Records
---
Amino acid sequence: MSRLMQIGEVVERVGYSFRTIRYYDEMGLITPSQRSPGGFRLYTEMDVYRLLVLKRMKPLDFSLEEMRELLQVLDALDGRIPSETPREELFEKLDTFRAAADARVEKLRERLMMAEEFAQRLRDEADGRTDGGSPAPEPPVRETPAP
């Protein structure tokens, strides 16, 4: 039998807050494997794995429904839940998630590159080491309509 952990240990392992784990429980994304006689949530390594999947999806702006669907696909592929969906179709869904993740990662890379360029420009400006290029543009002037 798998070792059971209370929510505090899971919080430390995953890096989520108590509140986030409880929220995912309320949304049906992660349900504690058991409850103690006192009603405390008890989690397994598989529950921690599922939380880590969610944590990796979050920065890529996957919706709660997309998170739920991917967990169902993974559970079906691993045989944790019964599924009437053919394995080939499950793998196709998994590939769709992979392609979406790849596209979202690329967008993040583009945004990060733009942010790094901006931060470098600010550092250069602050250090007085500009490349002689033009200064920051003036903000647009709003013209008031003639009466």
Note: DSSP finds five helices and three strands in the chain.
---
Amino acid sequence: MAGAEWIREYPLLVTEQQGPSPAEQAPEPEEVGGVGLTYYLGRWGLAPLTRLVYRPRIEGRRNIPRRGPVILASNHLSFIDSFVIPMYAPRPVYFLAKSSYFEGKGFSGWVSRTFFTAIGATSVRRGAGQAALDALDQQRRILASGRAVALYPEGTRSLDGRLYKGRTGVAFLALETGAKVVPVGLVGTNEAMPVTAKWPRTKPRVTIRYGEPIDLSHHGPASSGRARRLATDEIMAAIHELSGQELAGTYNEAPAQNPVERIKQVLPHERR
């Protein structure tokens, strides 16, 4: 399915409020470029250094396919999750980072932009509606090019350490693109770098567990809400087995700001 057509169709496949009309949509985003020399210099220089200082436990690296589209679906506990997942993977892994990291001015802005670009991050604007569709389409294009992406089915960090219900966007991408899903269980990253910390701590040791690849195609097509929900539940069950977290049994959502948002959260709808 072509990119522009795919953006138009996706809102019709879920039960949430539809995005803007085709006439209101932004032009097709540019193709995602590959990682540069800085990425490899940082990877082969920084990864051994962090292994020496932080002594992470890394399990299951061989479970990540070396070629083809792959989604690394992980629990999300800390800011450093987006660094430790790709840093110790056997192949470049892309992840989305908020656009403000790429839009800074002056020397500090250049440093931030260069760093995040070098480690395989691509810029995305957070939000609902068109911003959410653009982010989903950007991930689809990365997978269509045969690359690996890291995503968080919970949607955002767990501040209490529990594992929340997964949103169906990851499953949709896997079913739409045929990508295998490698579940990832992170243990201790929230203690190594809590929300209020500026730098990671050397204790406790962080554990990164890469699980066996999951083929979700048996659940059905991406157009099926039941298939997306069952596939998401299978991904979250695998993550739970690796992380050992307490299950929250609900979605990780920000408190509703008004009566309309409260009603939307109560009514059945698919969280993408």
Note: The first helix runs from residue 3 to 13.
